[in-house]
Design brief:
The complex is a heterodimer of chains A (498) and B (492).
Chain A lengths: L1 H22 L6 H27 L5 E7 L2 E6 L2 H24 L6 H20 L3 H19 L5 H32 L11 H6 L1 H19 L7 H4 L5 H10 L1 H17 L1 H6 L3 H20 L4 H21 L3 H32 L10 H4 L1 H15 L5 H15 L4 H25 L20 H19 L7 H13 L2
Antiparallel strand pairs in A: 1-2
Chain B lengths: L4 H19 L4 H26 L2 E4 L10 E4 L1 H27 L5 H24 L3 H20 L3 H33 L4 H7 L4 H17 L9 H7 L2 H11 L1 H14 L6 H24 L3 H17 L1 H7 L4 H32 L15 H14 L6 H15 L3 H26 L13 H17 L4 H6 L14
Antiparallel strand pairs in B: 1-2
Helix pairs in contact in B: 1-2, 1-4, 2-3, 2-4, 3-4, 3-10, 3-15, 3-19, 4-5, 5-6, 5-10, 6-8, 6-9, 7-11, 8-11, 9-10, 9-13, 10-15, 12-13, 12-14, 12-18, 13-15, 13-18, 15-16, 15-17, 15-19, 16-18, 16-19, 17-18
Classes of the chains: A mainly alpha (498), B mainly alpha (492).
C-alpha cells in the first residue's frame, strides 16, 4: 500500500524538486537547466505511465496524513485524476521543450523555469487531490506559482495583467476557502467519491448546500473563466507564449474546469445536484459563456487575444457537458478537457512561433504566412479546424457527444447553442486560415529570424506538430481503446452505473 | 528539584550572557553563541520532560506558592519558548554581520550595546513565559519593556529616539495600569499565583476593575487597535534585527499574559460580551492595520503596520474560546497563527532590512527591480507574504483555517468575513512591494552587495512558516501537554 502511495508523491516531487534546484542555478548554467527540466518532465511522464499501468492492474493509489488535527492531506488516483494528470504531464513535457527554445537568451531563466516547475507541481497536485482541502492547497499554490510567469517580462503591461490576474484568482481563492471550510464544518473531512458525498445532507440542509454550490462555482469559476469571472484571461495573454499555452491548456483554466467536474461529480454527485436544482443554472452560465466568448473572439485583431476569448468559450463546453444530466453528455464534457487542451496548446505554440520568427502578433498581419512557415501554419490549421468541429478531428467528437447527450437528456436547445458556437468558431478561425494560406505575403516581415534548416527553431516547431498530430489521432481513433474517449467512457460508466 | 534545572537555565543563560557581554564588550558574540547553545540544550531537555511528564515546575529557593515564586512550563509555554529560540537564533546569526556591514561610524558602538540588550530581552522573555504568578509577570513585563525601548533607541537619529520615547511612555503607563490591577487582585484574593487565583476568583466588582486595568495595560503593550499608534514608528525605525525581535516576540509577551489571565486565572469573570468586544477590536485591527499597510510609503512601515493587522487575528481567539473553552481547534489555530506570524515577521523584517541597506532607502516606489541585486531577500519577502496572506501551504494558512473552521462551527460567521477580507488585503500589500521589486526597468535601483548570511537567514526564516502548514500537526499537539487548565483536559 505504501509503495503505491509513493508513486503519487513521486509524480509531485519530480517537478517540485527540479523546480527548487533550478531556482538556485546560475543564469548562465544553460545546459544543466535544460537537462534538469527535461529530466523532471520525463520522470514525471514515466511515473504517470507507471500509475496508468498500475490502475490497469487494479492497484489502488492512496496517501494520506493529518496535517492539522482532523484535517487529512490526502492524495489519490481515481479515473478523473488520471485523465487530468496524464494530460497535464504529457503537455507539460512538450511545453517545457517549447519554453526552452522560446526563452533562449532571455534574462531570468532560472526564475522562470523554477516557477514553471512549481506550476506543474500544483497542477498535478490538483489532479491527484483526494479531498477538498488538498484540492484547495494546490489550487492556491497554482495561483501563486503562475503569477511570476505571467509577469515574467516585467513590462508595465505585464505587471498590470499580473495584478488583474491575481486580484481575480485570489478573490476566487478566498471564496473557495470559505466554501471548503463551510462544507468541512457540515460534512467533515470527506474524500472525493463517485456519485458524491452529500446524500445524508440533502434532506436536512438543502438550502445550505445550494448556497455552498454557488460559492464553489464562484470560487472555481474564476479559473475556469466562466462569464462574468473571465476578465483576467484576455489580459493575462501578455505572458510569454509558453506561459499562455500553460495557462490555457495545461494548468489554470483546466484546473478550473477540473475543479467544477470534481465538485459536481465527486462532492455533490450529479443526481444529488440535479435533485437540488443546481444543474440548470450551471448549464445556463456555461451557455452564456460559450456564446459570449465566441462572439468577442470575432472582434479581436490580436491573435493571442482572439485565442484567449476562444478559450473562454471552449472551456465552458466542459462545464456544459458536466451540467447536462446523462452519461453521453458527460463523456462529451470530460473528453473536451483533453481535446480542448491539445487543440488550444497547438494554437498558442503556433502563435508564439509567428511572433518569435516573423514578428506577427495580429491577425491582420498574417497574410501569406503559410508560405513562409508551412509546418507551423499546418499545425495551426489542424487545431483551428478541430475547434470548429470539422469531422475526423478531436473537436468534432466532443460536439457530437454533447449534442447526442443533450438530446438524450431532453435538452435539445443545446444543439442550437453548439451550432451557433460552431458557426462563430468558423467565423473567427477561417479568415485566419484564408489569410495565412491564400493571401499574398508582404514584401518584408516585421521581424525576420532565421534558424537554419527549419522555418523556425526545432524546439519551437516540434511541440505544435506533435500536439497537432494528437488532435488528428484523437479524432480518427476516437473509438479505439487508446484514446481519451475510451478513458472518459470508463469514468462516465462509473458515475452513472446503476 | 534536580530535574527542574532546564527551567532555571533558560532564564539564567541569556541573563548571565548579557552580563558577560556588558562587562566584556568585545566578546558579545561569544556570549550570545554560548547563550544560544545552553538555551537550545535546556529547551530540548525541557521539551522531553514535558512530553514525557507533563507540567514541569520549579519553586525558586524551594518555597512553594503562595509564599515563594513559582516557575512552571506547560505545552503552551513550550510552544512560545520554541518560537523564541528559533527567532533568537536567527537574530543572533543575522546580527553577526549586520552592524559591521553598515557604514555607520558608530556601528561598533551600537553592536557593543546590542548584544547585552538583546540577551537581556531574551532572558526577560523566557522568564515571562515561565512565570506562574501575576506579580512576577509584572516584573518580566517591565524588564522586557526597558530592554525593548533601549534597543529601539539603539538606532540613533531623531526619528528613532522620538519613537523610543513614545514607546517608553506607553510602556510605563501600561505597566502602571497592570500593576494597579495586580494590587487589587492581591487585595481581593490574597495570592498572585495563577493556579491558586483560579480557585479563589469570583465575579465581584473589585476583580472586574482589576481585570479591566490589567487588560488595558496589556492591550496597550500588545498594540491592539486602537492602542497601536506607538508600534509602527518604533518597529520601523529600530535596527533590522531589533525590529524582528519586537514584532515577532515582544508584542506576543503581553498577549501571552492576557490569555493566562483570562482563561487560566479568571475564566469566571469572562463574559461573552467582553470576549466579543476583544474580538471586535481584533477585527478592527486587522482591517485598520491592513489598510494602513497599503498606504505606507516606506517598506519597514508597511511591515510594521502589517504587524498591527496580524496581531488582530490573535484576538479572535477570545470570542471563540469563550464560546467553547475546551475548543482545541480554536486554541491550536490561534497559537499556530502566533508561531507562524512570529517566524514570518522575523523573515520579513530581516529581508526588509537587507533591502534598506542595499538600496540605501526603503521607499517602496523607488525599489523597482531590486530583485536583480537581492534575489534571495526578495524571494524570502514573497514567500513570507504567502503566510501573511494565509495562502496554503503556509503556517498562516493552517492557523487561519483552524480559526475559520471554529468560527463556522460556532456560527460566528462575522469573524469569517473579517478573516477572508484580511487575507486579501494582506495579499494586496505584499503585492504592492513585489510589483516594484519584480518590475523590469532599464535602470534597476542601484544596490550594494549584502553579506550572504544576512540574505540566507531571511530566507531560512521565510521557509519555516512557508512550509509549516503541512507539518502543523505536531506543534498543535504540544498544546495538550501538561495543560490541564487552558484546555480543560478536553480532547476536541
Amino acid at each position: 500500500m505504501t509503495t503505491h502511495g509513493l508513486v503519487l508523491l513521486g509524480i509531485l516531487f519530480s517537478s517540485f524538486f527540479t523546480g527548487l534546484v533550478i531556482f538556485f542555478l546560475r543564469e548562465d548554467n544553460h545546459r544543466l537547466r535544460v537537462w534538469l527540466n527535461l529530466l523532471g518532465a520525463g520522470l514525471k511522464l514515466i511515473l504517470v505511465a507507471a500509475l496508468l499501468w498500475g490502475i490497469h492492474q487494479g492497484y489502488h493509489y492512496q496517501l494520506s496524513f493529518d496535517f492539522l488535527p482532523g484535517l487529512p492531506f490526502s492524495l489519490g488516483a481515481d479515473a478523473n485524476s488520471v485523465l487530468f494528470v496524464t494530460l497535464s504531464s504529457f503537455l507539460w513535457f512538450w511545453t517545457t521543450l517549447y519554453a526552452v527554445g522560446y526563452l533562449e537568451d532571455s534574462p531570468h531563466r532560472s526564475r522562470f523555469f523554477g516557477f514553471f516547475s512549481l506550476c506543474v507541481t500544483a497542477t498535478t497536485g490538483i489532479a491527484l487531490s483526494a479531498n477538498l482541502v488538498t484540492f484547495l492547497v494546490f489550487y492556491e499554490l497554482l495561483t501563486v506559482s503562475t503569477y511570476p510567469l505571467v509577469v515574467h517580462r516585467g513590462t508595465p503591461q505585464a505587471m498590470r495583467g499580473g495584478k488583474i490576474y491575481l486580484a481575480y484568482t485570489l478573490a476566487g481563492g478566498a471564496v473557495l476557502l470559505l466554501a471548503v471550510a463551510w462544507f468541512h464544518s457540515l460534512a467533515g473531512p470527506v474524500p472525493f467519491k463517485e456519485r458524491g458525498v452529500v446524500q445524508t445532507l440533502i434532506a436536512a440542509r438543502p438550502n445550505e448546500l445550494r448556497v455552498l454550490f454557488f460559492l464553489f462555482i464562484l470560487g472555481i469559476g474564476v479559473k475556469a473563466a466562466i462569464v462574468p469571472l473571465h476578465g483576467w484571461l484576455p489580459r493575462a495573454m501578455v505572458a510569454p507564449a509558453p506561459v499562455s499555452a500553460l495557462l490555457h491548456a495545461v494548468a489554470v483554466v483546466k484546473a478550473g474546469a477540473f475543479g467544477i467536474m470534481r465538485v459536481v461529480y465527486d462532492v455533490y454527485g450529479v443526481e444529488n445536484a440535479a435533485k437540488l436544482g443546481l444543474m440548470q443554472p450551471l448549464a445556463l452560465a456555461a451557455t452564456v459563456t460559450i456564446v459570449y466568448g465566441s462572439t468577442l473572439a470575432l472582434f479581436q485583431d490580436e491573435l493571442k487575444k482572439r485565442l484567449a476569448f476562444s478559450t473562454v468559450s471552449q472551456v465552458s463546453y466542459i462545464v456544459l457537458g458536466v451540467a447536462i444530466l446523462g452519461p453521453i453528455s458527460t463523456i462529451g464534457g470530460l473528453v473536451h478537457l483533453v481535446h480542448q487542451g491539445i487543440m488550444k496548446i497547438t494554437l498558442f505554440f503556433c502563435a508564439g512561433n509567428y511572433a518569435e520568427t516573423v514578428g506577427i502578433h495580429r491577425v491582420s498581419e498574417m497574410n501569406g504566412v503559410g508560405r513562409r512557415m508551412p509546418w507551423t501554419t499546418a499545425a495551426f490549421s489542424v487545431a483551428a479546424l478541430g475547434m470548429i468541429g470539422v469531422p475526423l478531428l478531436a473537436g468534432a467528437v466532443t460536439k457530437q457527444y454533447l449534442k447526442l447527450g443533450a438530446e438524450q437528456a431532453g435538452a435539445p436547445w443545446v444543439g442550437w447553442v453548439l451550432a451557433a458556437s460552431s458557426l462563430l468558431n468558423a467565423a473567427y478561425f477561417l479568415p485566419i486560415l484564408w489569410r495565412a494560406w491564400i493571401k499574398e505575403p508582404p514584401a518584408r516581415w516585421p521581424v525576420e529570424h532565421h534558424f537554419g534548416r527549419w522555418e523556425t527553431h526545432w524546439m519551437l516547431l516540434l511541440p505544435p506538430l506533435v500536439t497537432a498530430a494528437l488532435v488528428v489521432w484523437a479524432g480518427i481513433f476516437a473509438e479505439s481503446s487508446f484514446s481519451p474517449l475510451a478513458w472518459v467512457k470508463l469514468i462516465a460508466a462509473r458515475e452513472f452505473a446503476p | 528539584m534536580t530535574a527542574s534545572w532546564p527551567i532555571v537555565a533558560l532564564i539564567l543563560a541569556p541573563l548571565l550572557a548579557a552580563a558577560a557581554a556588558f562587562a566584556l564588550p568585545r566578546h558579545g558574540r561569544q556570549a550570545a553563541l554560548l547563550a544560544n547553545l545552553v538555551a537550545a540544550a535546556a529547551l530540548a531537555l525541557l521539551a522531553r520532560q514535558i512530553v514525557t511528564g507533563g507540567l514541569q515546575t520549579h519553586d525558586i529557593g524551594g518555597w512553594a506558592a503562595p509564599l515563594g515564586i513559582g516557575l512552571r512550563a506547560d505545552g503552551f509555554a513550550l510552544l512560545m519558548l520554541v518560537v523564541t529560540m528559533i527567532i533568537a537564533a536567527a537574530v543572533s546569526l543575522y546580527a553577526l554581520r549586520y552592524f559591521l556591514f553598515s557604514h555607520d561610524p558608530e556601528a561598533a558602538h551600537r553592536e557593543r550595546y546590542f548584544w547585552p540588550l538583546f540577551l537581556f530581552l531574551w532572558s526577560a522573555l523566557h522568564a515571562l513565559f515561565l512565570s506562574a504568578d501575576i506579580f512576577n509577570l509584572y516584573v518580566t513585563l517591565e524588564l522586557l519593556g526597558f530592554a525593548a525601548v533601549a534597543l529601539v533607541a539603539l538606532a540613533g537619529g531623531r526619528e528613532a529616539l522620538a519613537a523610543a520615547m513614545r514607546y517608553l511612555w506607553v510602556s510605563l503607563a501600561a505597566s502602571l495600569f497592570y500593576l494597579m490591577g495586580v494590587a487589587l487582585v492581591y487585595g481581593q484574593c490574597a495570592t498572585v499565583d495563577l493556579p491558586l487565583l483560579a480557585t479563589r476568583a469570583s465575579p465581584v466588582p473589585t476583580l472586574w476593575v482589576a481585570l479591566a486595568l490589567m487588560t488595558v495595560g496589556l492591550l496597550a503593550k500588545a498594540a491592539l487597535f486602537p492602542m497601536h499608534f506607538w508600534l509602527p514608528p518604533a518597529h520601523a525605525s529600530a535596527p533590522a534585527p531589533v525590529s524582528a525581535l519586537l514584532s515577532a516576540l515582544v508584542v506576543k509577551g503581553p498577549f501571552y499574559i492576557l490569555l493566562r489571565l483570562w482563561f487560566e486565572a479568571f475564566p469566571v469573570v469572562m463574559t461573552p460580551v467582553i470576549a466579543q468586544a476583544l474580538g471586535a477590536l481584533g477585527a478592527a485591527a486587522i482591517l485598520w492595520g491592513s489598510v494602513s499597510a497599503l498606504l505606507q510609503p516606506r517598506l519597514k512601515l508597511l511591515v510594521a503596520s502589517s504587524t498591527v493587522a496580524q496581531l488582530g487575528y490573535l484576538f479572535l481567539l477570545f470570542p471563540m474560546v469563550t464560546a467553547r473553552p475546551d475548543s482545541f481547534l480554536a486554541w491550536s489555530g490561534g497559537l499556530l497563527f502566533l508561531g507562524a506570524h512570529a517566524c514570518a515577521k522575523t523573515a520579513m523584517f530581516l529581508a526588509a532590512g537587507n533591502i534598506l541597506h542595499a538600496a540605501g532607502h526603503d521607499r517602496i516606489k523607488d525599489l523597482d527591480g531590486v530583485t536583480h541585486a537581492l534575489p534571495i531577500s526578495a524571494f524570502a519577502f514573497g514567500l513570507v507574504g504567502l503566510s501573511l496572506a494565509g495562502l496554503p501551504p503556509s503556517g498562516g494558512f493552517a492557523g487561519k483555517w483552524l480559526l475559520l473552521s471554529t468560527a463556522l462551527a460556532q456560527g460566528q460567521w462575522w469573524w469569517v468575513l473579517v478573516i477572508l477580507v484580511g487575507g486579501l488585503l494582506a495579499a494586496a500589500y505584499v503585492m504592492r512591494v513585489l510589483t516594484h521589486a519584480f518590475a523590469r526597468v532599464p535602470e534597476p535601483t542601484p544596490c550594494e552587495a549584502i553579506p550572504p548570511i544576512m540574505e540566507w537567514t531571511a530566507l531560512a526564516m521565510a521557509i519555516l512558516p512557508g512550509g509549516l502548514g503541512l507539518l502543523a500537526h505536531a506543534p498543535t499537539e504540544w498544546l495538550r501537554l501538561g495543560a490541564p487548565i487552558l484546555l480543560k483536559g478536553s480532547g476536541l
